[in-house]
Amino acid sequence: MTDPIKEFTEAFERAKKKESGDATACALATADAVGHPAVRMVLLKKVDERGFVFFTNYGSRKAQELDENPFAALCFYWPALQEQVRVEGGVARLPGEESDEYFASRSRSSRIGAWASRQSEPLASRADLLARFVHYEAKFALKTVPRPTFWGGYRLEPERIEFWFDQPSRLHDRRAFTRGVNGWTLQRLYP
User: Fold this and answer.
1) Catalytic residue, candidates 160, 170, 174, 175
2) pTM over 0.90
3) Catalytic status, residue 175
């Protein structure tokens, strides 16, 4: 197959059927302006030919790092399939309409939680977080919960996608796709 987005989508569908955990979970690696790395788990919410989409608070550490250094990597590992996929590329914020559309699809409590969380900021106590939740729950009682301007999505636009398949004797199958001006090129790699 020479279309890594299609190949990823097929693997992703298999993982959603076979994994006991959340197959949308992936590690997101970022680096700040001086190159100090950080990694955390996020949930993939959409993938298409334009890229891989996830959402967060724009005040979070990951968002600050993406503002300083707009490149990132995702790593998916699906043990039930014995497959891993790595994706690397530039990252950009989604247009507001796309973030609005996803935000509206979330549960009401998750939308209120987005308002309540000052993600990555110091928190004196859990009681403070719960009090903020109750405050916003009251503020939006009987109203639609709008998307906060400090919350939205990012799209990682892939420049490199690598597929790894577990094989006996540690002779794993690795295939890397690199995007160029004429489309994707495929290269096999030693395990």
Assistant:
1) 170
2) yes
3) no
